[in-house]
Amino acid sequence: MQLKLLVIRSANPAQLAQFYTQLGCIFEQHRHGKGPLHYSCTIAQTVLEIYPLAKGQEAADPNLRLGFEVEEFEVVLEKLIEQGGTLIQAPYESEFGWMGVVEDLEGRKVELYKKGQ
Q: Which is nearest to 51 in space by CA: 65, 66, 64, 40?
């Protein structure tokens, strides 16, 4: 099995796409038929999309937790904080290698893992 698609709903998709660009994502704007304009990027074989909030949805789901392995761990962590992210867990060596946790602009926890460990 392989994860093919992950959709995040956001009150401000453009701003959130800019935040996740700091991880190395390269987003393109998409629209499927008459659907909403959204942002899409491909990570390995998984498509990550950022859509506007669904009709009747008042806020983004802050319970979604994401994890990314990145090459320039310390640099990416700093860039996310500069883009408005909040450091939740300072980098530490876990059983999975070096990791840190940042909260994105809408309260989602984003785990960062240092590549190659």
A: 40
Length of the chain: 117
Question: How many domains is the chain partitioned into structurally?
Answer: 1
Single-letter amino acid code for the residue at 2? Q
Sequence-distant (6+) residues with CB within 8 A of 56 are: none
Q: Are 90 and 100 in contact (CB under 8 A)?
A: yes
Range of the domain at 75: 5-114
Per-residue pLDDT of the chain (117 residues; tens, 9 = 90+): 999 999 999 999 999 999 999 999 999 999 999 999 999 999 999 999 999 999 999 999 999 999 999 999 999 999 999 999 999 999 999 998 999 999 999 999 999 999 986
d(CA 104, CA 36): 22
Assign residue 103 the CATH number of its domain.
3.10.180.10
Query: In sequence order, which residues have a C-beta less than 8 Å from that of residue 7 and are 6 or more positions away?
Result: 49, 50, 51
